[in-house]
TrEMBL record:
Protein name: FAD-dependent oxidoreductase
Record-linked Pfam families: FAD_binding_3
TM annotation in the entry: none
Organism, as annotated: Amycolatopsis pigmentata
Gene3D superfamilies: FAD/NAD(P)-binding domain
FAD-binding domain boundaries: 28-355
Length: 461
């Protein structure tokens, strides 16, 4: 079996439901009910007699933003790679989501602009759109419908260790603290995960954390969608740092309850769309006409802003000393500049890592290094996509990878060519959609074709 990152990524992206799923635990606990936590619980349902999801917030059946996800009212994109995995774990997910109000976004109505130039058509992979709370509610309903999965409302305050393994989670509910015993624990507490502190307090190593400052400011408002006659979805217009120091771009998607979500993003001190009026003016005056058409509709939710300070990753895979029966997923391991839309899709692939690891019948008396090595492939892929682009921003100053200048030039050639060439655009989309590993773009044939495409484009300009 090939172990190249691209081959591992292909395995993890398998759309087929797994077979041969041995029951390995009595009770497994997932701390956190975000996308990563819900998908981890779904995987664990194949391998545990009982799965407990500890939820800090009680969403009930609501599809409103959770207190634990303050960015939940901003645009969130479910990339085709993530949708493929959701269909794997919940067959019929897309059909049910569409029936409940999600919106289809086939390639024919997705429009993508770079510096005002509309890109050619690329990947034909299907997308669906909806608000983050709506999509999360869909996943929650599917997960908690499983007979061996249950949720408890409480705040995790620590993990219990016995010898070389984790044996439970301390939970505070209504002012009282209890211990939920567990044979396996998953940290899905997100960017603010406290697992590192708990490990250190228990005498274990804490993972090193890497950060890249991005200082992204974004603002989102909702508009009525009834009767505007605009047959588009998943609109994106981005600007190169060289051409725009203030506005990074604008994204628009259809969501449930006949609404448009419109988001503007900017970096550092630039905060486009601070008010709804600012956002409307921006879309009408600085972007293609369809952006202005969307914001001509009735405003149903005024602008809500959010700041994302940095991309970060915790290097669990490098720990020399770590307890057995413990893993971390989602933003608890790595969170990226959200403008690239990788968060939810990365979380679904972390679930695939967990499934492959558990189906290998690992020695559970030892740390889950096999899981973290699989997860590293996914994290490295998303990290290289987002940070590679972020390093081109004038206010970002490293850390730079080896051979950065060469990599920057190669990526620049391919990215520029993807605007004009359908085959390169398809390959580019497959990587950014998290369907393929980034290394699949780095072939000499793709680079040569990109150079020739760009030369022809310059002659026409």
């Amino acid at each position: 079996m090939s172990t190249s990152p691209a081959a591992v990524f292909d395995r993890l992206s398998d759309p087929n439901p797994p077979t041969d799923t041995p029951v390995l635990f009595g009770t497994a606990i997932v701390i956190g009910s975000s996308v990563a936590g819900l998908l981890a619980a779904r995987v664990l349902a194949d391998h545990a007699e009982t799965v407990i999801v500890i939820e800090r917030d009680d969403p009930g059946t609501s599809s409103e933003p959770r207190a634990g996800a303050p960015q939940g009212n901003q645009i969130h994109v479910l990339l085709p790679g993530g949708l493929r995995q959701l269909e794997r774990w919940f067959p019929g997910f897309a059909e049910q989501a569409l029936a409940d109000g999600a919106r289809p976004a086939p390639a024919s109505i997705r429009h993508n602009y770079v510096d005002g130039v509309r890109k050619v058509s690329g990947s034909q992979a299907m997308m669906i759109t909806g608000s983050r709370p709506f999509q999360e509610a869909q996943m929650r309903r599917h997960t908690l419908a499983l007979p061996n999965v249950k949720a408890i409302i409480g705040r995790a305050t620590g993990v219990q260790f016995d010898g070389d393994a984790v044996t439970g989670v301390r939970v505070q509910t209504d002012g009282a603290e209890t211990v939920e015993r567990a044979d396996f624990v998953v940290d899905a507490m997100g960017r603010s995960s406290r697992l590192s502190e708990w490990l250190e307090q228990g005498g274990w190593q804490r993972p090193a954390i890497r950060r890249m400052t991005v200082d992204l400011n974004y603002a989102t408002a909702a508009f009525r969608r009834n009767g505007d006659g605009l047959d588009v979805n998943a609109l994106l217009a981005v600007r190169s740092p060289e051409l725009s120091a203030d506005v990074a771009g604008v994204a628009i998607s259809q969501i449930e309850r006949d609404r448009w979500l419109v988001m503007a993003g900017g970096y550092a001190q630039h905060r486009p769309g601070r008010t709804t009026e600012d956002l409307i003016t921006l879309c009408r005056t600085e972007f293609p006409p369809e952006f202005g058409q969307v914001v001509s509709n009735e405003v149903v939710e005024d602008v809500r802003t959010y700041r994302h300070a940095d991309s970060r990753r915790r290097d669990f895979h490098l720990l020399q000393r770590m307890p057995a029966r413990l893993v971390a997923v989602g933003d608890a391991v790595a969170s990226f500049n959200p403008i690239y839309g990788q968060g939810m899709s990365s979380a679904t692939l972390h679930a695939s890592c967990l499934s492959e690891f558990l189906r290998s019948r690992p020695d559970l008396s030892k740390p889950a290094r096999g899981f973290f090595e699989l997860q590293k492939v996914v994290v490295d892929a998303a990290w290289s996509i987002s940070t590679g682009a972020d390093l081109a921003l004038p206010h970002v100053d490293g850390p730079y990878p080896r051979f950065y200048k060469v990599l920057q030039w190669i990526n620049g050639q391919i990215t520029a060519a993807s605007v004009h060439d359908s085959d390169i655009c398809r390959r580019f989309d497959e990587v950014t959609f998290m369907l393929k590993h980034p290394s699949t773009l780095a072939s000499p044939a793709v680079l040569l074709r990109s150079i020739l495409v760009n030369l022809r484009a310059k002659k026409k300009a």
